[in-house]
Amino acid sequence: MRILKLVLLTLIILSHQLIEAQKETEIVYLSGTDKDNLVEWDFFCSEGRNSGKWTKIGVPSCWEQKGFGTYNYGSGTGTLNMASEHGLYKHKFNVPKTWKNKNVRIVFEGVMTDAQVKLNGKLAGPIHQGAFYEFKYDITKLLKFGTENVLEVKVNKMSANKSINHAERAADFWVFGGIYRPVYLSVSPKDNIKRIAVDARADGQITTDVYIDSKNAHGVSLSLFDLKGNKVQNIKVNVKKEQEKWRVSGKADGIKTWNPEFPNLYKLHLSLLDKNENILHKVEERIGFRTVEVLEGDGIYVNGERIKFKGVNRHAFHPASGRTTSKNISIEHVQLMKDMNMNAVRMSHYPPDVHFLDVCDSLGLFVLDEICTWHNPMLDTKVARKIVKETVVRDVNHPSILMWGNGNEQGWNPEVDDDFAKWDIQNREVIHPWSIYKKTNTIHYSHYHSLVNDSYSKEKILFPTEFLHGVYDGGHGAGLEDYWLRMWNLPLSAGGFLWDFADEGVERTDRNNEIDLQGNKANDGIVGPYLEKEASYFTIKEIWSPIYLEDRFINEDFNGIFRIENRYHYTNLDQITMTSKWITFEGPKGNTSQKVLSEHKVDLPSLNPGGKGKFYVQKPSHWKLADALHLTAVDTYGKEIFTWSYPVSSPSKVSKPLVLYSGGGTIKSTTENQKITVETNDLTYQFSKETGLLLEVKKGNQIIPLNTGPIILNQKAKIEDVKINALNNKVEILTIFEKTDKSPSWSTVKEFASDSIKWTIHSNGLLDLRVAFKGFRNLKGYRGITFSFPENEVAGMKWLGDGPYRVWRNRMKGTRFQVWENNYNNTVTGEVGKDQFVYPEFKGFFSSLYWSKVKGNHDNGFTVYCRTPHTYFRMLTPQEPKQNKKGKTHPKFPEGDISFVMNIPAIGTKFQKPESMGPHGNPEHYFGNDDEPIVMDLTFEF
């Protein structure tokens, strides 16, 4: 009997759960769910590859990526020249008889571009136009219950609407065709809630518009749950019934607000009730409580805090699957943005997959959501109204969305500006990206001087929705330090959005899956097509760190004090953990590991957002023995904010125990045919008697191909004399440029102001070089020395200095001082080639050189020790990009192959020369007094 009772109780519970489940909406996928989970449908392509026959295709997908049709890139090709194939889809599915008493809608999350949908031979509704928008049809009356149904979809890649073609098919991005987002059935009770729109404020006030399809509905109940399913509270509501919707309002108590730093979310359960308070239909919506205010002449406020966007533009894209993505991709993209200390993302230039917005909600990013337009002409009003509705209705409840973009770059249709508010219960502001509109100025690619903000629109809130265009290696991090310093301190600046997140390189299935970037049109990402990190990734990470540390140098007078600013919007610094490490490194013959001499927890001050203060780094008794200090900050979630590094030992101190002059045998020098030959051990050096330049290095029978140097860059003085001084254990060669009032001394070249070169060859084979050259108050060229070393002989390098990425004058941040090792590559940033997307790039300028071991391909490399602080090491010359317009993204390099310089150039963007991007982009350099020489002190070991 007891067992029977338990069985009956179990059946009652299961029956109750079944009844309850029948009151919820059921989702049944007809397609797969993402790029990695496809369902095959029958398919026919009208033109291009694999056309003219019925076959199979996985859905969702872009048909070009499955081997059909023709590839198109929008911008510059013109819609008249584009392929205009269409695709026919057919899919059969069964529905149960139990659905007869249900309401069934078919939902298409995205189809490119015009979609005609038939079910069992009958049109499901009007043809849908617009590639990036969710649409649905009520198909209840078209279904055959308990048997097979036939779904047919005709997809035209080109739209019959000319304004959509211009907005989407001729825009500056890849053009695809197909059912590229999932398709599913939404099955609800007959009496149902079609959708809801929620406004959840920071004070806990909730207002919900409930759109109802019911003749029996009498009331609504609201309950709030946490994400673990625990009920937080029932919400007492007021209901105002209108013809198309019911407005339900109430107040939640004790809630935690949503923001990017603390993205607190809840589940709102809403039940539609009959007159006896029985549940007719239940829906669930994930929400966040937050309040957005755009205050004219002031700024953008979220939950009462004025914010600055640290943002980036982002395409929904994957190289292998085109616009068909996945939630895993969305998570990976947002995690990378958060790792760069970004807090915002702009949808460029269309609404993304729903899962991307879900991830922005849960991980925490501000979002600018946008409809798709492209320059003039604008979308026609009829279709624009439909597109605005589809965008807002789908995305209205995401707390991450702060604003709507009415298209991009002059494609705005002002007649639909007010339409956003018709569908947005939160009445979020509408912007015109690249325009001065109402309260905002979102100018694109402005020069640095525009941030003076002294124009007629100076009362507008300034935030460029695109800036520092990142084609090749320019932009992004290059120039950001100057821009951000001004943006951070400009009251009416609300930050900005870099262009853009990732290179939009597509795997061409018609070209053996090679990556196509359309020249320099689609390679403007901070990361590569497969999310390979470029140097700017780390520069952005440091500059946009919410913990700002004042620049610091460590020397004998170091007192342990660092000055700090809290650049969070919502986080106190007492929630951040910082660790200091005093580190030593091995020399060129060791490995790249490091030894921690001492490690300490740093006590950060309790600073509210915007606060400034200081902290103290504990100095152990042996701190001066360290080579570097590393400070690592970790946020409340255990994620590294950034690691700052500071050299402790000087270059001369580091090299002292590594450069040993003891040992060696006899040394002799001879002069013949204007060549000075010095022999010691198994090394033979040849120098020019006329110039003092190194002509050849031979180790045994092996040529070390370092030669023709040191050429002093921008040297105008003529050679006065070359002197030789042979001693017992060394030979000195001194090259003097022009006459001076002082006589040269063998003890030091600092005693005379004229440029000079002094070689010292020691009996153990070490080769010292000391070069003196004039400083200039205003120099637009390089100051330093250079050598020749054939590129085809270089295999790699290992060095102590900043790395692992190269630097430019306007992109110095983001490196770390330690021992690095890079293998040779010939990568052109963001360009397809033999070494495509191999980072870090091998060639370029590297800062804070202490020593470098240059590896040769034939055991013919060398090691150089640098004793001069703040020296840049130039390793070869990067190959110029193929479409480097006016040289903006490829600065002029010094002559030779390997150089040691005191200054380096800045790099520009696709649209700007570096000098228009801020002080760091200026080509002028200041080196002190004309009569005070700069001394470069090196030792070569072969």
Automatic annotation (TrEMBL):
Transmembrane segments: none annotated. Keywords: Calcium, Glycosidase, Hydrolase, Signal. Residues 199-290 form the Glycoside hydrolase family 2 immunoglobulin-like beta-sandwich domain. It catalyses: Hydrolysis of terminal non-reducing beta-D-galactose residues in beta-D-galactosides. Residues 56-188 form the Glycosyl hydrolases family 2 sugar binding domain. Residues 296-512 form the Glycoside hydrolase family 2 catalytic domain. Its EC number is 3.2.1.23. GO terms for biological process: lactose catabolic process. GO terms for molecular function: beta-galactosidase activity; carbohydrate binding. It is an enzyme of class 3 (hydrolase). Belongs to the glycosyl hydrolase 2 family. Monomer. This is beta-galactosidase. It comes from Seonamhaeicola algicola.
